[in-house]
Amino acid sequence: MHTMWKGSISFGLVNIPVKMHAATEDKDIKFRSLHNKCHTPIKYEKVCPTCNIEIANEEIVKAYEYTKGKYVVLEDEDFNKLEKEMDEKAVDIIDFVKITEIDPIYFNKTYYLSPNEGGGKAYSLLRKAMAESEKVGIAKIVIRSKEQLAVIRVYENTLVMETIHYPDEVRNASDVPNVPNNDTVSEKELATAILLIDQLTTEFNPEKYKDEYREALLKIINAKRTGKETVVPEAKGERTSVTDLMAALQASIDRSAPKNNETAPTKPVTKTTKKIKKNA
Fold first, then answer.
1. Nearest 10 degrees: Cα torsion 166, 170, 173, 178
2. Sequence-ordered strand ranges (E) for the chain
3. What's residue 266's pLDDT?
4. pTM for this prediction
5. Would residue 105 count as lying in a domain?
6. Is residue 179 part of a domain?
7. Are 20 and 140 within one domain?
8. pLDDT tens, 22-79?
9. Fewest CB atoms within 10 Å of the CB: 27, 187, 221, 230?
10. 154, 147 in Cβ contact below 8 A?
């Protein structure tokens, strides 16, 4: 597994040398843009519209646009000075919290952490201490000239670092338009919806979920490459706009109910299911 970064994790006076590795990979199918006449890949050139010439990378500088058309230019030494001041090679755990207190909207990118030379015992200590206490560490790290907030946690016996957004990077949910302020559903609609959720509830098994679009697209690509007839997957049942909420809920329950030859999972009788039977 490729090492992206080397540094250390510190909590209190304990210092753990670690290596960082990407925990996820992008499986998206990449496309090239070709000229439809000759199928030559298209070039994307960096051109200055004022000078009307192509610009080399060494002629490009970074700038911040503080108002329309006005910029503050930053030099390499400006970034280098910041990186030295912020100690780019350290992950400093500043707090420990319960992971249930962090909403998933904050999570961004996941990395595996492995111990570097001489860090095995301290690595094991932090891993066991966090597992026993059921806590995760909140840390700060500088990656690619940007200070990141991160969560250090245990995943399958390995320390994982999840970069998370700062609060001012998460937009206010109250700004989302057209969200109803009050619930206008009836007790019967709510009870039926909860029954449908119960009927569809299972243990999370990530292996059962597949990118069906990507698989179908790869089949088309392979068929074209080998000169075979392309096969388009059958369309799923059409979705219709809901005009009768109760009818849609009941139809969903009927569709997701176990077949006669299947054994239905035993579920405890709840107040919710009693209400439905009474109202049916």
1. 170
2. 5-11, 14-22, 47-48, 53-54, 62-67, 70-74, 90-97, 107-115, 136-143, 146-155, 158-164
3. 46
4. 0.69
5. yes
6. no
7. yes
8. 998 888 888 889 989 898 999 888 999 999 999 998 999 999 999 999 999 988 888 7
9. 27
10. no
Tell me the two tokens of residue 266: 């035993």
Same domain, 153 and 228: no
Q: Which H helix or E strand runs over 197?
A: helix 187-200
Indicate which CATH number applies to the domain containing 23: 2.40.290.10
Residue 23, Cβ density class (10 Å: 0-12 exposed, 13-18 middle, ≥19 buried): middle
Collapsed DSSP state (helix, strand, coil) of residue 215: helix
Stretches where the chain sits below pLDDT 50 are 263-280
Rounded distance, CA 159 to CA 131, Å?
10
Residue-range definition of the domain harbouring residue 135:
5-28+80-168
One domain, residues 134 and 198: no
Q: Using CA atoms of 243, 245, 249, 250 in order, give the dihedral in degrees to the nearest 10.
A: -80
CA distance 76 to 81: 9
Domain count, the chain: 2
DSSP 217: H
Same domain, 153 and 251: no
Does residue 90 sit within a domain?
yes
